[in-house]
Amino acid sequence: MAKKLDVIIFGASGFTGKYAVVEGVRVLKDLSWGIAGRNKEKLEKVLKEAGEKTKTDLSKTPIIIADIKDENSLKAMAEQCKVLVNCCGPYRFYGEVVVKTCINAGTHHVDVSGEPQYMEQMQLKYNDLAKEKGVYVVSACGFDSIPSDLGTVFVENHFDGVVNSVETYLESWQEGGNTCGAALHYGTWESAVYGLAHAGELHGIRSQLFKEKLPLTEPKLKNRPLIFKSDIVDNAYCLPFPGSDRSVVRRSQRVFYENDKKRPVQMNAYIAFRSLAAVIGVTLVAVVFGLLSKFSFGRYLLLNYPKLFSFGFVSHEGPSEEKMEKTKFKMTFYALGWPKEETLAEPTDKYTVPPSKTLIARVTGANPGYGGTCVALLLSAVTILKEHTKMPGSGGVLPPGAAFAKTNMVSELAKNDNGFVFEVVSAKEITSE
């Protein structure tokens, strides 16, 4: 059956969905698109507000009524579009039924999940069926996995040699240092609470999903101390980054190894702060969060009093537009490896000399949590529509780096209106003394 629309934004009346609609006016302007959700009045209000904000008449934008709890409505929605942009989280609760419905309808699916259990469970359960149906299911299509995963691809493409390891350092700040309300929406907090509470599920999922281990690459990338300073980011205070970046990048590296026989890159992710007070505050929140998430009553407290336990960082209302527009991010990549002339014949071969080349790259942008996220999410949908022949195989459940490595996704993200900048800062060979 012919698809009536190119793209549908599902969950358009939610916090992320509203911003996806606003960005969609520009990013999807050459495509046919609509919005979906369970409440027609709310969806009409979203279109009205987005139209006023973008000075665009959206009155004729198709509205589709679909409810997570009504599989027939999901089926009818999925059958109307080529790509479904799913903004309904937490995905561990609401994602699977949409993924399954899309695959059965022959509809591609993208989302902004940062939940490793959900993403890897979807790959375990539906990768073969997605390949059979010719459908791409790509999660983690927002901030921060798009910068980290496609940033690693960018680093490899510009290294001119063999990358052994990559360390990423994420920094975020507000222009002018003005603070004006919470910086995260409650939905992100909720996903993190349940993700950490059920982190133990990952071992079982991975033992089924990844039956063969990736080859051991040496030298092994060592973990940094819990708190350390790094001259890569001008001696800022650094902590391990708690997000899904490492697991997403590692999944992409596995695809590259299995499909292209490329030597897997090791990766560790960190977050950097300019003040010791910020480090102490974040560490305190992380410790309390980690302890409480392990118990049902602790989760009750975290979910019902997010402002209290995040020191005001999280709220049901989410960050103000003023704060989002002033928020900037920078992700710095430090890559270590060997120059081109020392390339090995096989990815499983071992080097007999230490790494002798470094490269530092950066991905920067604005409004990462919502504006940048929605731009990346919608460009993921557009890329599937326009460049699916450059993607692996004919379908599958994939992380964004593996899905879009051979497409023009990075150059599209880097166009002026889209707000991302990918750049090489320095590259040099290490001379032995």
UniProtKB/TrEMBL annotation:
GO cellular component: lipid droplet; mitochondrion; plasma membrane
Organism: Tabanus bromius (Band-eyed brown horse fly)
Keywords for the protein's UniProt record, in alphabetical order: Membrane, Transmembrane, Transmembrane helix
Bilayer-crossing regions: 271-292
Protein known as: Putative conserved plasma membrane protein
InterPro entries recorded: NAD(P)-bd_dom_sf, Saccharopine_DH-like_oxidrdct, Sacchrp_dh_NADP-bd
GO biological process terms held by the UniProt record: glycolipid biosynthetic process
Family: Belongs to the saccharopine dehydrogenase family.
Residues covered by the Saccharopine dehydrogenase NADP binding domain: 7-138
